Amino acid sequence: MARIALHPIGSHLPQDVLERNRAAMRPLEERLEERRAAVRAGWGEEYVARVHRKGKLTTWERIELLVDPGTEILPVGTLVNDGLLFPFGSKKRPSPGAGVVTAFCRVEGRWTMVIANDNTVASGSWWPRTPEKIERAQEMALRLRIPVIYLVDSSGLYLPEQAKTFPGRTGAGAIFKMNSKLSAAGVPQIAGVFGDCIAGGGYMPIISDVVYMTEQAYMVIAGAALVKGGKSQKITSLDIGGPDVHVHLSACADFRVPDDRTLIDRIRADVRKLPTPAVDYYRLDAEPAPPRFDPAELPGIFPPDYRHTYDMRQVLARLVDDSLFREIFPGVGREMICGVGLVSGLPLGFIANNPELTDHPELAGEKRPGGILYREGIAKISQFARACNEDGIPLVWLQDISGFDIGPEAEKKGLLGYGSSLIYTNSTHTVPTITVLLRKASGAGYYAECGLPYDPIIQLATPITRLAVMEGRTLAIGAFRTKLDENFNIVAETEEEREKIRRAMQEVEDRITADMDPHRAASQMDVDEVVRMDELRRWLAGFAEMAYQSIGYRTIRNRRIWTLHDLVVLADEPR
Question: In the chain, fewer beta carbons within 10 Å around the N or the C end?
């Protein structure tokens, strides 16, 4: 009873279909890679050279020294502020990644959250959404109880935009509140100060357990320019708050080191002292194993037209170890798939939409569309999610949802009530959760399936994600309903009037479709990261290892007494 039997899932797919779909996906992946490269480049080679002239490393050079060689870096918030320009002197400039890198990184065999100011973007200034991005990374670390490493090199708020970063509840001050919450929860925080550390930047490292400063670093409430203006004192920021002051006099920092490389070595040495991960313990005798079907095939599974269906079980077969999966209640609510699989040798619960047509449970011979929430599917995934929460099994939601069923029958069957039950489940669960918006994420279905308002630790989008209340064409029809007949054809007295209505409807459709772009969602932090389909397996492996890394902060039940065993028995009982 300590094991739930896993069964093979998936099959080989026709190469011509895979290649046709992959070819349609490729331009979207190339666009994503272009944006990632632009963010990583910061403000370009000129600013990289400026950092090097100061004898310092760039932010990405520091991160690459910090992480374990050959390991994955999983960035979050890469595209925050993407496409936005802000006043900067006489020009407008972008703030790539909001001027800060936040990423899950392996350091000394442990997953950590690294938060590092990009010193090639306005000296690491905090732009609009920089505080929110930092706070989101801190929240992820707090909920996973993984160490936080701050690589601080920041001249503080970008003051011309201070109204957007200073006063609100998610403004810069909330960063220090999150510092405090992490400390109160016993989450290790290690800070390295490499250069500028002014005002808010000066507060950020102070609550850390250990604070290092290089010889070029300083931490000040106000820089030398303000002191000169306010107190008429001729003095440098290094004189005010360098290591001579904060290591030897104020005790606001713990150690001084000569340079960036030495500081990185010291941080790695500190992480090495932390408890070893519990991942191997929770694997029991399972070993991490790749899927039998290559995750590189995932981009080829999804049709170019979002209205066309595909087999979600083929997706699962390219995500779980050995392509083994135990589906729960497969014969009930077939528009939803739920079950357990191992990823990196660790149990995860999966809840996924089935986009294909399924048999109508009450009308023999009739089919109904997938990607919609009906009563039976809602009840099934609610119970499954509650069982996983009870057992401590981290949850993965794979969304391709058009919304809830609608109409007289849906109302008679109490879909509002069943939906509320699912929303309650997602609002009160405590198990680590990741939500992946594979394709459509529409309407209240997006909420009910643990969309961002329901606090998944991570929410990912893909190059084909469409996040909105409804599709552009549907919204245009609704907006112009009084101008349309029963078949949604335009009703007009003249051809000129007909063309005017058609153009107006097309404008609405185009605007909504543009709003659904995953890059836009990432830019305004409606998703945490946009990832390629063939990256999903490594993200889930990282998530699983982070969810099981720490002990003592959440319930992880002995597998012999899983609630899921009860569901398996009920699902297997003859009817």
Answer: C
Q: What phi, psi does 4 have (nearest 5°)?
A: -100, 125
pTM (predicted TM-score):
0.93
Q: CB-based contacts of 516: which residues, under 8 Å, 6+ apart?
A: 465, 466, 467, 468, 471, 472
β-pair partners for 546: none
Q: Average pLDDT for residues 136-164, to the nearest whole number?
A: 90
Sign of CA dihedral 148, 153, 155, 161: negative
Which residue(s) pair with 304 in the sheet? none
- Tell me the C-alpha to C-alpha distance, in Å, between residue 34 and each of 79, 323, 554, 561, 566: 11, 32, 40, 49, 49
Domain covering 42-274: architecture = Alpha-Beta Complex (3.90)
CATH superfamily of 285-467+525-570: 2-enoyl-CoA Hydratase; Chain A, domain 1 (3.90.226.10)
Cα(307)–Cα(218) distance, integer angstroms: 56
For residue range 167-204, what is the model confidence (pLDDT) as tens digits?
Answer: 888 888 899 999 999 999 999 999 999 988 776 666 67
Cα angle, residue 458 at apex, residues 457 and 462 outer, rounded to 5°: 160
| Helix axes 564-572 and 375-391, enclosed angle (nearest 10) | 140
